[in-house]
Amino acid sequence: MSNLKVLVVDDEKGYRDEIEEYLVDSGFTVFTAGLPSAALEIVGNESIDIAIIDLRLPEMSGIDLMKKIREIDEQIGVIMISGHGDMDSVISAMRDGAIDFFPKPFNLIDIRFAIERTRKFIEMQSNLTEIRNTCDNLMEMMNNESRVPIIGESPGMKEVFRLMSQVSPNLNTDVLLTGESGTGKELVARGIHYLGSGKGKVFFDVNCTAIPENLFESEFFGHTRNAFTGALTEKKGCFEIANGGTLFLDEIGDLPLAMQAKLLRVLEERKIRRVGSNIDIPLNLRIIASTNQDLGAMMEHKLFREDLYYRLNRFPINIPALRDRKDDVIPLLELYNWHFSTTMKKSYKHISEKALTKLLTYGYPGNVRELRNMVEKAIILSATKSLELTLNCFPDLDRSACTVPELISPDNLDLSRLEGMERDMIKCAMQKTGNNKTHAAALLNITRTSLNRRIEKHGLEFN
I need a surface site. Which of 125, 151, 258, 422 has the fewest CB within 10 A? Predict the structure, then answer.
């Protein structure tokens, strides 16, 4: 921190000298200027890290000076100061890139803390830029399909990126993506597709949970006209639609056993036949399947075919939970903060230190999806003229934890308690998510269909 070069621009010599003396005593290298022209000359000759700029200056406004400084070096962090309570100007300065603001008079120690916060912000922005550059090819190929790129600087996500780049050229290698709900399995699938298949190829996603068993063959393989009652026209199935590209089978663990057998045959033979037809259609496509369930445990209980598992698991990629990659929380916060501020046409807001501390220690049972939803809600709840996202903007962080029964011990082996535990955990998850079944299912690490089945089994009702 003491190696930082700080530029102080203020036409009031008293303020300028006072700030310079304090910062020099604190170990900073300090440059001062009373006029914008002198400040620009210093920026042109020195590697300035942070500029402290008065809002009202001769020659040009502090905001205009900030813009000119950023044209020379966009990495310079800017702190604005002003002796005038012009909130419109303050908001304008923050919108144009100022990282902090202080009205005169101010405590010098606050300025020092602001410099430290600005330093951290600059480092964070630098790290985010490095992440984006590292994943540049992936992001460029996905830009047209996803508004938000995959972000990750943690070791776990770097390993995911490495595996994605290695498997992407191999069109006929099936991939199995595992990980909890909300970790970004579909984004990873799309990334593999666009890295390998390139532009112009189809990426077709199928939610295995949503397909009724009696429509499986029609949806997957297609049908000819009059193949069955109601088949008024011929129809392509998802395999045929995705041929030449990628078929993404989301939540493969929810596929009933009868459908699993039919799917296995197609994966092995690499050809399909429409319902009502005797003509085989050869397939040349990538199959990517995903699940948030433990397929190994499902195989043991005869809920998932072993042969299908090993056929799909030719190239497994596990996407780690967000709680296991906390290095990604800040870049994700910044990305979603910028994204929702832009889409909602609100001024960019900084996250307060208290809120940031809570966000960094939170467990994120809903993973990246939950963090994204939190930031979206925070932007909506934030006051229009506020420059910060405070802890009050993140109500989910302070939501009381539900209590669940203690674990069963060897001294209390009562099998009926399992039913009670499941019932209580469902009630707890629904309470915590405001009766949102999708979010509750994510908290419980099960699908929404599975949650509905359990709710019905226990005779629970939620408004």
Answer: 258
